[in-house]
TrEMBL record:
Membrane keyword on record: yes
GO biological process: non-motile cilium assembly
Species for this entry: Sipha flava (yellow sugarcane aphid)
Subcellular location(s) per record: Membrane
Protein name in UniProt: Transmembrane protein 80-like
Length: 140
């Protein structure tokens, strides 16, 4: 299978998976903030940090997905490069929810790992796509 096509397919899959992932994370943040037991309740600082990371993660991921799925073939390589660059802060945001929160659920960890694997696969096929773009430019 061609790398640019696989990259497109992965970004299409990511648009749906991240939608599910973000709805789940938002639900978990809400559930943790209204927990009845004082021992498990979020502090205001934790809630603010989680919501800030969540909003920035959503904005970055939406912009990254938009860039990588543009149909303009002339700037396709530029869009893929920008998408790959934006993968770094997106992965850091997912890592925050995976590793750096005070409390996490097992399902939260599983979904975060799936998102990171999906992003790593996108990076691989994005780089291969760039190499394909470069080699097709040099042959024409």
């Amino acid at each position: 299978m061609e790398a640019p096509l696989m990259f497109e397919v992965l970004m299409y899959l990511n648009s749906y998976y991240f939608g599910m992932f973000s709805m789940f994370e938002f639900s978990v943040i809400c559930a943790k903030s209204i927990d009845d037991t004082q021992k498990n309740r979020f502090s205001a600082n934790e809630l603010g940090t989680n919501m800030t990371v969540f909003v920035f993660l959503c904005l970055i991921e939406v912009f990254r997905t938009f860039l990588s799925r543009r149909d303009n073939a002339a700037d396709k390589a530029v869009c893929v490069v920008l998408s790959l660059i934006l993968t770094v802060p997106s992965a850091v945001g997912v890592l925050y929810f995976l590793l750096w929160q005070q409390r996490t659920f097992r399902l939260e960890n599983i979904l975060g790992c799936i998102q990171l694997v999906l992003q790593a696969t996108q990076v691989f096929f994005g780089i291969v796509s760039l190499l394909t773009f470069k080699s097709s430019d040099s042959t024409t």
